[in-house]
Design brief:
alpha+beta, Glutaredoxin, 2 domains, five-stranded mixed beta sheet, 5 strands
Length: 262
């Protein structure tokens, strides 16, 4: 291969290199070739080189423009995101949502969760610990907030509520959180059988209007309380800022002390 053919081949290869490497290689190759361009390439080779350089520069400018547009879009979106007010008390209606814990509880945890959300799964042991730590003062309300990009979260929510119509919401909730990657209809039907449901009635309720209305009621409460992600917890209407066990016990103790004084 001649020197001219070799350099032209290198130039064509450079034009196909991703931008992340092209910038550095352009500078290096141009510097190396520029010293011999007049003697080795000739008029045609010089023309090819200039056209190749021009195409690469145009590509770089286009990528830089796209990057600037994306950055501006992200910054604009960040400015529009409302700040969370952790001092605001929301009036969240319990409605027909599942409730467990103390019957005459002074403190209520309202949880908005998604059965496919790994963070929702991780918060379950914390809630169990809190219920055991405050058996006479704490109750837990579960509300569904299935996220759109979790395709099986809605069916899972409906399955739990359908189980709830037979008095076994928490049993279904537990088994679904333990199996977040097995939430197909056949899996949900299997779980219904395992926890002792009337499977035929379960399937009817799962597809029925009543369960759908219950899910939509949860979603409506979530929107009123400015919930945008899962899990989101509220203690007596105030959004929980720190979901560590220590922080939440401190918050609950503070609320209980306030109840004693009032």
């Amino acid at each position: 291969m001649s020197s001219r053919e070799h350099k032209q081949g290198a130039l064509r290869t450079l034009a196909r290199i991703p931008f992340s490497k092209a910038g550095l290689l352009v500078a290096v190759c141009v510097g190396l070739v520029a010293c011999t361009v007049e003697t080795d390439l000739g008029p045609d080779g010089l023309k090819d080189l200039r056209e190749g350089q021009k195409a690469i520069l145009e590509r770089i400018e286009k990528i830089e423009k796209t990057q600037k547009q994306l950055l501006a879009s992200v910054q604009k979106g960040a400015r529009k995101r409302p700040a969370v007010d952790y001092n605001k008390v929301y009036d969240i209606k319990v409605g027909r949502s599942p409730v467990r814990g103390a019957k005459d509880a002074k403190i209520t945890i309202v949880e908005f969760s998604d059965f496919q959300c790994p963070y929702s799964k991780r918060v379950q042991p914390l809630i169990e610990k809190l219920l055991k730590a405050y058996p006479d003062d704490l109750q837990h309300v579960y509300k569904n907030f299935p996220l759109r990009f979790h395709k099986e979260a809605m069916p899972a929510a409906k399955a739990c509520l359908a189980a709830g119509l037979q008095g076994k919401f928490w049993e279904m909730e537990a088994i679904i959180f333990e199996n977040p990657k097995k939430l197909k209809d056949k899996d949900l039907k299997k779980y219904a059988k395992e926890i002792g449901l009337d499977v035929q009635q379960f399937e009817k309720d799962f597809s029925g209007e009543e369960v759908d209305k219950l899910v939509q009621a949860d979603i409506a409460e979530a929107k009123k309380a400015k919930v945008t992600g899962t899990p989101t917890l509220f203690l007596n209407g105030k959004r929980v800022q720190n979901r560590s066990e220590e922080a939440m016990k401190k918050d609950i103790t503070t609320l209980l002390e306030g109840k004693k004084k009032s």
